[in-house]
Specification:
2 domains; two-stranded antiparallel ribbon
């Protein structure tokens, strides 16, 4: 009986060890959310807002020049802007997750610059979301009002028909989307600049 009990205990211990081993393998094989193929996600996704938000701002500028261009390019501008906003959200969230790792062992100056970069990224995310919302309103409100009125947005001579809302609506939307585009581009550039400065500071500190 003692031998059989000892054998049962040994099997239980072995099974428990196998379960722990499987759990550790599963944990090791599951990549963190802030990594992609073993690389930090932040340096990869940060290129999305850096490229797409200025491109959306250029699209906004084009639509402000001529009403026909507004009708032709507004939806593609909205699509580019939406992708840029999503990129800004991903870049800020992954940057916050990476902050602790890159701050370890860094100099005081480097940690200060990393903190500034994270704050700049948060600001870029907020401003880009505002830009995205205003951009959608800039494109959709006149379109929706014209459809509800059952009239085209443009006359035969290429001018606004008035079906897209009162006469003051388009100038207000134009001013808002222009300011939001400028703010979005500025904050993205500032976030990129502070990020590059923090990386360079770590390189210099490491080489010192």
């Amino acid at each position: 009986m003692a031998g059989s009990k000892l054998g049962v205990r040994r099997e239980v211990v072995q099974d428990s060890y196998k379960d722990d081993e499987k759990g550790s393998v599963t944990e090791q094989s599951t990549p963190p959310m802030d990594q992609l193929s073993g690389l930090p996600t932040h340096p990869l996704v940060v290129h999305l807002p850096v490229v797409l938000l200025p491109l959306a701002a250029i699209g906004v500028a084009v639509t402000l020049v001529r009403y026909q261009w507004y009708l032709r390019y507004r939806w593609i501008t909205v699509g580019i802007g939406a992708a840029g906003v999503l990129g800004a959200i991903l870049a800020a969230s992954t940057g916050e997750g990476l902050q602790h790792d890159v701050s370890e062992g860094a100099s005081q100056a480097a940690r200060h610059l990393i903190h500034e970069h994270v704050e700049a990224g948060d600001m870029a995310r907020t401003v880009s979301i505002v830009f995205g919302v205003i951009l959608v309103l800039y494109a959709m409100v006149p379109w929706f009002l014209a459809r509800r009125a059952g009239q085209p947005e443009v006359t035969d001579d290429g001018k606004p028909s008035g079906a897209g809302g009162p006469s003051w609506l388009r100038p207000v939307l134009m001013a808002l989307v222009a300011l939001a585009a400028i703010g979005s581009v500025y904050t993205v550039i500032n976030a990129g600049h502070t990020g590059a400065t923090s990386v360079w500071e770590q390189v210099e500190s490491g080489g010192a």
